[in-house]
Design goal:
Length: 149
């Protein structure tokens, strides 16, 4: 039987002796840190799930979808579908003061992408993976067609 994300997170906490945390206390940049990894994993899983391909080709396709510009576009596509709570999490991430910025992104795209990643991290950590995947699917809209091998 497959394990849910909550089961995996419970196993991680148990294996490493971690206490359950209230994610409302997490900084938006911590949420974005987790969201960046989760979003990348979803994109890589989507690409690999379409069949075997050269790793270089997979990397190029993933890089085209997992960058500040693409994430900013995804956010614009899903913005109308967000709940008030999701908008709040996004805004916290967007408005967070980061010490770094992506090399090939505008400040606007970078901030929107950080908000998007914070939202993805919050959804993941709060166990709302179905909602997270629904928003990712909506955000990828036209881009998914370009991910064929």
């Amino acid at each position: 039987m497959e394990k849910s994300v909550k089961d995996l997170m419970a196993e991680i906490r148990e294996s490493f002796g971690l206490e359950e945390m209230d994610i409302r206390t997490y900084s938006p940049l911590t949420l974005a840190y987790v969201g960046d990894a989760v979003y990348e994993l979803v994109i890589r899983s989507l690409l690999a799930g379409r069949g075997n391909a050269q790793v270089n080709r997979l990397h190029r396709k993933a890089s085209g979808l997992v960058n500040a510009g693409a994430q900013s576009k995804s956010l614009e596509r899903i913005r109308e579908a967000l709940t008030e709570e999701e908008l709040h999490v996004f805004r916290r991430g967007r408005n967070a003061n980061s010490a770094t910025m992506a090399k090939h992104a505008t400040m606007t795209d970078y901030r929107r992408a950080t908000g998007f990643e914070a939202l993805m991290g919050w959804l993941y950590l709060s166990g709302q993976t179905e909602r997270m995947l629904e928003l990712i699917r909506l955000g990828l809209e036209d881009d998914v067609a370009g991910t064929e091998h």
